[in-house]
Each structure stands twice: as structure tokens, then as C-alpha cells.
Write a structure and sequence with these properties.
heterodimer; A: alpha+beta; seven-stranded mixed sheet; five-stranded mixed sheet; about 30% helix; B: about 170 residues; seven-stranded antiparallel sheet; 3 helices
């Protein structure tokens, strides 16, 4: 106990702190699933159907089983006791096909596994898989959702010949009346094409079984370690507390690892049968064929407005390509599109219908943005189409219809409650940054020269921080434990599962500020169900907003305890004169201080314990958010199309995003830039294409045009800040914002460039070939 | 996927037709063919080695020659499958006498699946053309050899030009 001068520490929250995760990654010392090597470990390889629909007449495993080094071969009927793949969604009348972990008598997508070979090394396993002979009776398949619901289409599941998994309707206000009184109604069919999530690390898992302890350990590349443990324990018939699931370093998820897949159960099943650890690492080709994809919408939009541009109502019919069966959240994704369909606009009347359709393709599910990009793309395209119809300036029509700053919290026609915002202010900032008025003048001049110059706007909103538990499958709360060690070092256990978002850094920033300790004294642990209390995981832009809040609250509990101990240790006559600041307890009455670290030691030594307290310095909080958060922003793209090649050049890209308070601007930049590259990828290049027979024809990076660094424009980024009132950190979420805002801005820019040729809409991706053909056709017609 | 095109043979129409029905000639002329044996009246079993883009693998297949109208046309149905996927083709070949010999027009439907569909799609059309071109080139060579009275070599070429067919 000493009397010292307090040096005011610099706050870390809000600073560009470099990611503490990076040293292990850039030195190649991070441990991904494939880096895990256990003694006596075996390797699994799956035999997969080349047909999108077929009956399995017979499977001959004899040659594979006889191959030296092959330890076991399992086919579907061997795994009958393993539970089917879990879909966590309940919608009225939802049809859920039972998806066995290995197909038994029928396959319904290319890549459907029909057998697994377990061998002493992965090459022998692959050779063994090649020796398995499957006799298929090939059936007709359907890969297009609209063809699948047409009369006479082949049934993906014979028990449901119409291929419809569910229908869902939602109404707000009276859309029919709004459309009846409208001066103008615009309609447009739009496709949000299937996209592959493409994490740098594919899926993979290692399972290890200790039969004497009935203890199974699974290492798997997942975004949801605790939920995966619960689900896998159920599938395997194992007590949940006997299963330890570890998500080691996860090399990207983008939603595709917000899931539990058949392979994780099969590998565990094999490990339990054989009593030896089993590893499986997904190949890139398997990833294209068997890991969930995103989007897959055919949408019919309608917008009704007054002649002055006031939007009266919006309708949409969504044909959702679900794929052949449901993964964890498959049917729920288009319902998020419905929630998001009003965008930032003050539209009281909405009507939406979803038709969820089975196709002989890999399931769709949550991929970065998950339902909101499709909706934002739709409403932002429709607003541009409406503006063109009314000959209004696209910026003006947006200002006219924004929810006003004084309307928050704003109840939308879709049942949401937008937390905070000032849309016009953010949009003004973006328009100023790009010099909108002058740019339009330059565009007019360029058009006189016959150049195809476009300016595209997207003002987007999004639903983040998922979310209130009643609205999220499996719950939407999050947990955190703060353990102050006897030395005063701080260990944080978080229920989220960061895999690139950087919470080992941002959470340490929060804790360093709250406790006044050096950031290097803080360790953030996650992703191990035996170390961390139950949590939900990382998805839906929730890590910081929900998980960070749980941490913040646990830190407040720690501070309360520290104050009690501090007051006792300082012999304060009146505890109310003691405060905790800058890593010390200070008694203002006496000027005496005591360091946090000293208090921690005393709390564990416990020579004397404060009244109404206990030894140790640990706190755990589970936090349930009262609402989603609603980030928003404005993206503007200035582009020019080369009519000779159809190539789009992005001349300027301006984004102003309001994501509430910013904890680390460097990480926020990274998320927004990465998000924009996704959105631009969808707008311009990416497309998972299935042919009429259900064959994926874009199954590797030579054919699937993933956006490359060299394709990216220089991004001019700025922020406005309306803190969220939903959580004490005032944060909203940023993981998906860039994705959602960028796609419509890019497409609007290209359509704007083509509008002198009479083009009103072009479906994505806007490849040079597509644009060149369109330009050539239009110019020929004009002659 | 539709496949259509035409090729020429230096032989008269009857001779061309005959060559195209001769299993020994076909075995030599089909690119990547490692073995071909007759299993029925106009039915053959064959083994192929295929290298396409980043994939290579053995195919087992069946060729059926149907609707013969010598010497002007026949239908060919090909089905093959292997570890890297499957191929199905069904087409009609029409022969016409021309000054320099015979023109063979072909048109039909081809379907591919499995890995070759997902990684080789962009190459399939050009590859198919290339393989067909090679087939007729080899057919011409075989016909010439037979015409010159060379002893029929029952062995297949030592290396069925695996590298040669590396497309």
C-alpha cells in the first residue's frame, strides 16, 4: 500500500491496435485442424456420387477393403444409428428430409457421400476410395428452382413431388391498397446467383475416442463450437459432457462453418468404432461440391409509388433454391431477406412470399450477409428502377424516402425495430466525398462522347448482432468469463468463436481499458468447450456486439469485487470514498492507493475476506440482447465500361458506413474492405453454376471467378457514428456490412452506365462477356 | 451439351464406313484407348485413359453402333465412367462421298458428370473437337496402313499416347 501519483493511461478502445493474432499466422505457427497429428491416427476419404440423382443398386467394397493399409470401409447402412444432419429451423409446414450421414439407397446431389474409407494414410485412403464400385441407377435431376416447381419436374424427394419445402408469407400494412392507389408500379425479376463461401481453409476434423473414459475429442473447423458439440453429441448418442469439441485456428468461415456437417459425425463414428484417432480434411473440390453455398434466389420485385417519388409499398416473391436437403439454417435464410426488404425506407406496406424449393444441388445456407444482401440488392435496384421510371435523380428519391433521424427507434412494416441512425447525414457525407454533383456533370459530358460511364448508389441497412434469443435458432445470447489470476494477469473466456474477426485484440482492448492493466497481461481464450463456458458462436455480425457486451458486463462485476477488496485492503473508513481507476484502487479520503495486481493476490491468498464477498476474482456473465442492431451506410461506385471488351473499370469506390462505435478502426477497415470484395465479387464475377443435370460446372478456381486482390478498387472509406442504444458498448457490427452495401452499388453503377442504351436491368454477375453481348446487341438494334 | 461437326477421310465412302466398324482399327484410332473388345453384335467394351485439365484417370466404357445404314450412316452410343466422373454420348454419323474421299458429319448430345464436369467444363468442347480430329487422323493412317497390305498388328500401340492425349 503506497501513495503514488496516478498516471492517466491512454485508452485503447478506438485505437488502431494491430491484431494480436497475427504473429502466429504470419510466422506459420498457428494450429489449424490439419496441423493436428495424434499418435496412431488414421485418415478418412469419402466416396462421392458423380450423379445428381440416382438409386444405389449395389456397392462393392471388396477391392478397397483388401487394399493394404485400409483399416475400415463404411457404407450408409453401417451408419444408420448415427442421427441425421440437423436443421435447426422450424417454419410452419416445413418439410425436412432425413439426411443420413452417408447415403443409404439413394443420392440426391453430386458429391453426396456413399462410403468412407479409413486407412493408415491419406493417400491409401484416397486409393481405397477409388477402388469402391458403386452401381447407380441414374435418375433425372433438376437444378434450377423455377424448373423444379414447374409441372412435370423430377422430384428431388419422391415423397414431395412438387419439390416445395415450404411456403412463407409475411404482410405489413396493406400492400394491395397501396399498389391500387399508386401512380406508378415497377416490376422486375432479379437473380441473386449462388455463391461459394470459399474460406481459405476448407472444412476438416480430427476425432479421438478414449473408450475407458467414454471421452470423445473432436477438433473441427467451425464457427460454433458449443452448438456443434450439442448437435454432434446428439447425432452420436453420446452424453454432451463426454464430448470435448475444439475449434483450433479456423481459416475463415464466412457462414459456411456456421453448420454441423455429416462428415464430422462420420469421422467421429469411425474413431469410436476403431478406437483410433481419425482425420479428414476436405479437398478444395469437395468444398465446392459439398459445403453449403449462399444466395440462390430468383426474386420478383414490385414497388409502388406516388408521382413525387414517395414509396407506398413493396412486394416480393422469393423463389429460394434450398438445394437437396436442409443444413443447419437453410430454410431460415430467405426469411431474413423478408425482414430486410424495406431497406432504409419509410415504407408502411409490404407483402412477401417465399417459396422454398428443393433442387439436386448442395444446400444453400448462411453465407456472409445471409439473406440481407439479396433483399438490399432487390430494394436498391428497385429504387433505381423507380427513379428512372419517374425521371428522378437516384439520390433525391432516396432522401425523399429515408426514415428520418427523429423517427428512431423505428418500427418497420416487417416487424423490426431499427435502433438508431441518421441515414440522410451518412448519405450526404458519401455524396460529398465523391463530389456527386460534379461527377454527374462529368458523366453527362462523357455520354455525349458515347462513353459508358455509370454512377451507382446503394444506401443499405442491415440486421446485426444476432440477436434476441426468440429470433435466433438455438439462442442469441452470449457469454463471457473474466478470470483474474493471482498475479493479476487476466484471462478472458468468450463464448464466441473468432476466426478472423480479431476479438483476441478488441476484447483485450476493452478489458485493458476497464481494468487499467497492460494489454499484454490479457489473454483471450475461445473455441474449446472444455475450457470455455457454453456460448453461441461467431456469425451474424454478433461477436463484439453480443459477446463483447457479455465481456463488458463481466468486467463490471470484476470491478465491483475489486472495489470491495480494495476498500478492505486500504482500510477505508467509508467504502464510498474508494474508486477504481487506472489499475488502482484509490481512497480519496486518505489518498492511499493499491494496485489491481496486489488486490488480485490478496483475493486468492484470502487472509481476510471482505463482507459479502468470497475468495478469488472471477466473474461470468450471460447477456441477452434486447434487440438486433442496425448498421447502415452508403456506397457509391463510379465506373466505366469498355464497349469493345465489356470490361468494367471501377474508377472510384466510396463507402461511408455507420456501424456505431468503433473499437479498432484497423479491424473495421479490414472487415469492410473484405466485405466489399465479396459484394463486388458477386456483382461482377462469382457464380456457382449447375448444369441441367445438376453437375456443378464451376468446381475449381479456374472456373469459379473468385475476386482477386488485383480486381479490387482503391476504397475510400469514412464513417458516421450513431451509437447503438442496444448495448453498453454502443457497437452495431461490421462483419457483413461491406458485402451488403457493395453489390447493389456496383450493379446500379453498371446499369446507369448502360441506361443510354435502354438497359434497365442486368442479372449478375456482370461479366465482360455478358456486357459485351448486351452492348453489341443494343447498338446493332439502334442502327 | 450438343456436339456437331465434320471431318474428312481420304478413302471412298464404303471403305471409310468399313474402317469405322472394325474393332482393331477403332482400338488404334480412338485417342487414349487402352483396350477394346467386342461384346456383342455391334457392341464393344473399351478402356480409356483420359487426361483433362488437372484430372486424369481410367475410364471403362461401352460403345454401341446402332441403326446401320451402310455406307451412309450409323448411330453411335458411348457410355463411360471412371473415378473422375462419367461421359455419355449419343450421336449420328453421316457419310457423304466427296471428290477427295468421304466427308463424315456428326451431331449428337454429350453429357459429362462428376469431377470432370466441375473442373473441366471450359475445356470439354475444345477437347472433344481435338479428340475427334485426332480420331479421324489416326483412322486415315490406319486405313492407309491396311490398304498398303501391312500385316495387321494385333497388339495395341505400346504407349496409347497417354501424353499425346494430354489435353
Amino acid at each position: 500500500m503506497s501513495s503514488t501519483t496516478i498516471t492517466r493511461r491512454e485508452k485503447l478502445v478506438g485505437k488502431r491496435i494491430r491484431r494480436r493474432e497475427d504473429p502466429r499466422m504470419i510466422t506459420g505457427t498457428a494450429t489449424y485442424v490439419d496441423d493436428i497429428k495424434l499418435p496412431n491416427m488414421l485418415y478418412a476419404a469419402f466416396v462421392r456420387s458423380p450423379h445428381a440423382a440416382a438409386n444405389i443398386r449395389s456397392i462393392d467394397i471388396s477391392k478397397a477393403a483388401a487394399l493394404p493399409g485400409v483399416v475400415a470401409v463404411y457404407v450408409g447402412k453401417d451408419t444408420k444409428d448415427v442421427g441425421g444432419v440437423v436443421c435447426g429451423v422450424d417454419l410452419p409446414g416445413l418439410r425436412k428430409p432425413h439426411h443420413n450421414v452417408i447415403a443409404i439407397d439413394r443420392v440426391y446431389l453430386v458429391g453426396h457421400s456413399v462410403a468412407v474409407v479409413v486407412a493408415t494414410d491419406r493417400y491409401v485412403a484416397a486409393d481405397g476410395a477409388d477402388l469402391i464400385e458403386v452401381d447407380y441407377e441414374v435418375l433425372e435431376a433438376v437444378a434450377d428452382p423455377e424448373k423444379a416447381i414447374a409441372a412435370g419436374a423430377p422430384a428431388v424427394h419422391p415423397e414431395w413431388p412438387d419439390n416445395i419445402a415450404f411456403r412463407f408469407e409475411q404482410k405489413g400494412g396493406d400492400a394491395d391498397a397501396a399498389f391500387a392507389e399508386a401512380d406508378v408500379v415497377c416490376k422486375q425479376r432479379m437473380i441473386s446467383q449462388r455463391m461459394v463461401a470459399n474460406p481459405m481453409e476448407t472444412r476438416g476434423c480430427v476425432a479421438s475416442w478414449h473408450s475407458a473414459d467414454r471421452a470423445l475429442t473432436i477438433y473441427t473447423s467451425t464457427q460454433i463450437p458449443h452448438l456443434a458439440r450439442t448437435i454432434l453429441a446428439g447425432m452420436l448418442g453420446l452424453e454432451e459432457n463426454r464430448l470435448r469439441l475444439i475449434a483450433p485456428e479456423v481459416g475463415g468461415g464466412f457462414g459456411c462453418k456456421l453448420n454441423v456437417y455429416a462428415e464430422e459425425a462420420v469421422v467421429s463414428f469411425a474413431a469410436m468404432k476403431l478406437g483410433r484417432p481419425v482425420k479428414w480434411i476436405e479437398t478444395r473440390r469437395e468444398n465446392f461440391l459439398t459445403t453449403i453455398q449462399g444466395r440462390g434466389h430468383v426474386d420478383y420485385w414490385e414497388i409502388a409509388a406516388k408521382r413525387d417519388g414517395t414509396i407506398l409499398g413493396v412486394k416480393v416473391k422469393i423463389i429460394q433454391d434450398l438445394g437437396a436437403y436442409h443444413q443447419l439454417l437453410t430454410p431460415a435464410i430467405p426469411t431474413l431477406s423478408v425482414l430486410m426488404m424495406p431497406g432504409l425506407y419509410n415504407t408502411r406496406n409490404i407483402q412477401a412470399e417465399i417459396v422454398g424449393v428443393f433442387t439436386n444441388c448442395v444446400p444453400t445456407d448462411a453465407v456472409r450477409g445471409a439473406g440481407r444482401p439479396e433483399a438490399t440488392y432487390g430494394i436498391e435496384r428497385m429504387v433505381d428502377i423507380l427513379a428512372a421510371e419517374l425521371k428522378m435523380e437516384p439520390a433525391d428519391i432516396r432522401f425523399k424516402n429515408f426514415v428520418a433521424a427523429d423517427q428512431f427507434p423505428f418500427a418497420t412494416a416487417t416487424g423490426l425495430n431499427y435502433d438508431s441512425g441518421d441515414y440522410a447525414n451518412t448519405f450526404h457525407k458519401a455524396l460529398d466525398m465523391i463530389g456527386y454533383k460534379k461527377l454527374r456533370e462529368e458523366q453527362a459530358a462523357a455520354r455525349k462522347q458515347g462513353r459508358l460511364v455509370g454512377i451507382g448508389i446503394s444506401t443499405y441497412g442491415e440486421i446485426c448482432a444476432m440477436g434476441p434469443s426468440p429470433a435466433v435458432a438455438a439462442g442469441g445470447w452470449e457469454s463471457a468469463t473474466v478470470k483474474v489470476e493471482p498475479s493479476g494477469k487476466v484471462t478472458i473466456l468468450t463464448g464466441i468463436s473468432p476466426h478472423g474477426q480479431g476479438e483476441e485484440t478488441t476484447f483485450a482492448q476493452i478489458a485493458a481499458d476497464e481494468l487499467g492493466v497492460p494489454i499484454d497481461d490479457i489473454l483471450v481464450l475461445h473455441g474449446d468447450t472444455s475450457i470455455v463456458q457454453y456460448g453461441i458462436g461467431t456469425f451474424g455480425s454478433r461477436g463484439t456486439a453480443v459477446g463483447g457486451t457479455a465481456l463488458y458486463l463481466a468486467l463490471q462485476d470484476i470491478k465491483d469485487k475489486v472495489l470491495k477488496w480494495g476498500a478492505m485492503l486500504l482500510d477505508a473508513a467509508d467504502p464510498s470514498t474508494v474508486r477504481f481507476e487506472g489499475g488502482q484502487c484509490i481512497d480519496d479520503a486518505t489518498g492511499k492507493t493499491i494496485f489491481f495486481q496486489t488486490i488480485a493476490g490478496a483475493a486468492y491468498r484470502a487472509m481476510k475476506i471482505p463482507a459479502h464477498s468470497e475468495p478469488g476474482l472471477v466473474a461470468t456473465r450471460f447477456w441477452e440482447p434486447g434487440n438486433f442492431t442496425y448498421p447502415f451506410g452508403a456506397h457509391i461506385v463510379h465506373s466505366e465500361i469498355d464497349p469493345e471488351t465489356g470490361q468494367v473499370e471501377i474508377k472510384r469506390y466510396v463507402m461511408v458506413d455507420d456501424i456505431g462505435n468503433i473499437l479498432n478502426p484497423m479491424l473495421v477497415d479490414g472487415q469492410l474492405h473484405g466485405g466489399a470484395s465479396w459484394g463486388l465479387g458477386q456483382a461482377l464475377w462469382e457464380h456457382a453454376i449447375y448444369d441441367d443435370n445438376g453437375q456443378l460446372v464451376t468446381g475449381e478456381f479456374m472456373d469459379y471467378a473468385l475476386a482477386r486482390a488485383r480486381n479490387m478498387p482503391w476504397i475510400e472509406s469514412a464513417h458516421t457514428c450513431t451509437p447503438s442504444p442496444v448495448n453498453p458498448l454502443g457497437v452495431k457490427g461490421v462483419g457483413e456490412a461491406g458485402t451488403i452495401g457493395s453489390t447493389p452499388a456496383m450493379v446500379n453503377s453498371v446499369v446507369d452506365a448502360l441506361s443510354p442504351l435502354g438497359v434497365r436491368h442486368v442479372d449478375m454477375p456482370l461479366t465482360p462477356e455478358k456486357l459485351w453481348q448486351l452492348i453489341s446487341t443494343r447498338r446493332t438494334e439502334a442502327k | 451439351m450438343k456436339i456437331a461437326g465434320a471431318a474428312q477421310s481420304p478413302f471412298a465412302i464404303e471403305r471409310t464406313y468399313e474402317l469405322m466398324q472394325d474393332p482393331a482399327v477403332l482400338a488404334r484410332a480412338i485417342p487414349g484407348c487402352q483396350s477394346l473388345s467386342r461384346t456383342g453384335e455391334a457392341e464393344y467394351k473399351l478402356q480409356l485413359k483420359v487426361i483433362l485439365a488437372s484430372l486424369s484417370g481410367a475410364f471403362e466404357g461401352q460403345v454401341r453402333l446402332l441403326d446401320p445404314l451402310p455406307p451412309t450412316s450409323f448411330r453411335m452410343v458411348v457410355e463411360g465412367s471412371g473415378k473422375i466422373g462419367f461421359v455419355k454420348g449419343d450421336g449420328v454419323l453421316t457419310l457423304t462421298a466427296i471428290d477427295t474421299g468421304t466427308e463424315i458429319a456428326y451431331s449428337g448430345e454429350a453429357q459429362i458428370g462428376g469431377n470432370i464436369a466441375s473442373v473441366g467444363q471450359r475445356m470439354v468442347d475444345t477437347t472433344a473437337r481435338l479428340l475427334i480430329k485426332r480420331f479421324f487422323k489416326k483412322l486415315a493412317a490406319e486405313g492407309k496402313k491396311a490398304g498398303e497390305g501391312d500385316a495387321q498388328d494385333d497388339e495395341l500401340p505400346e504407349s496409347p499416347a497417354a501424353e499425346d492425349e494430354n489435353v
